[in-house]
Design a protein that fits this description.
250 residues; mainly alpha
């Protein structure tokens, strides 16, 4: 294990990824979403996409202790459990796609999904109808598939939730609880498919502390009454990560 940590410490761009993890945690604790949108485009510069996903999923376990306890009191637990359960089979399919796909194509997919999601959020698209169980299951399935294949669990759910009529606090809490629980349950699925590798585990553990610290700071900054402010900050950081993660910089 000491050799594995030594190799992790020697990974090119490690300090950039550690700082990015802190910023990703900050956004997650503040806005309730966007951590993978911040980290994955940057992580994919220095690591294979599979390793980036596995390491970041592992470090995201910090959210269970830092931001989940407060958020879980603000959600509709029945709907959230339904969606988490519907997402898991689709995650497994997405992980299989991840193992088969071309790495450059996956990197462009990560950037493209992040860009489309950001554009939809910025334009302020909304729907009026109250979603039923069928729609929630469909959204959760799409969320799980995209998350397994690209490491971006959030985009589909973020668009669905923020385009609805829930309050800022309820939307943030719902997204946060769903993403945290699904990420935790994603880890054994990754292990079963051989994606939680000896290279990813020490990296994930190294990133655990800066990510957890970022979520605590972000949660302390969140104020439900300042909806526009928190959205704008999150959008700007996500946009920066998208630009930095473009494969053309290679």
């Amino acid at each position: 294990m000491s050799d594995a940590f030594a190799q992790a410490l020697a990974v090119p761009g490690l300090w950039v990824m550690l700082v990015t993890c802190f910023v990703a945690g900050l956004v997650y604790g503040f806005a309730g979403f966007g951590s993978a949108l911040v980290f994955m485009p940057v992580g994919a510069i220095f690591l294979p996409v599979q390793t980036s996903i596995a390491a970041f999923s592992l470090c995201s376990l910090a959210s269970v202790f830092t931001v989940l306890p407060r958020a879980v009191t603000e959600v509709n637990r029945r709907n959230t459990v339904l969606m988490v359960g519907a997402a898991l089979p689709a995650v497994a399919v997405g992980l299989w796609v991840l193992k088969q796909a071309d790495m450059t194509l996956l990197r462009w997919t990560v950037v493209s999904v992040a860009t489309v999601t950001l554009a939809a959020l910025v334009t302020g698209w909304r729907y009026r109808a109250e979603p039923g169980p069928g729609m929630r299951i469909a959204v959760a399935g799409a969320t799980g598939f995209v998350g397994g294949a690209t490491g971006l669990l959030g985009p589909v759910l973020i668009l669905f939730q923020l385009a609805g009529q829930d309050t800022v606090a309820r939307s943030r809490a719902t997204i946060l609880v769903f993403l945290t629980l699904t990420t935790v349950l994603l880890l054994p699925l990754m292990a079963l498919q051989g994606l939680l590798t000896a290279a990813a585990i020490p990296l994930g553990l190294l990133m655990l502390l800066p990510y957890g610290l970022g979520t605590k700071v972000g949660q302390a900054l969140f104020r439900p009454a300042r909806e526009e402010g928190y959205r704008v900050v999150a959008y700007l950081i996500i946009a920066t990560a998208i630009v930095l993660g473009l494969p053309v910089w290679d």
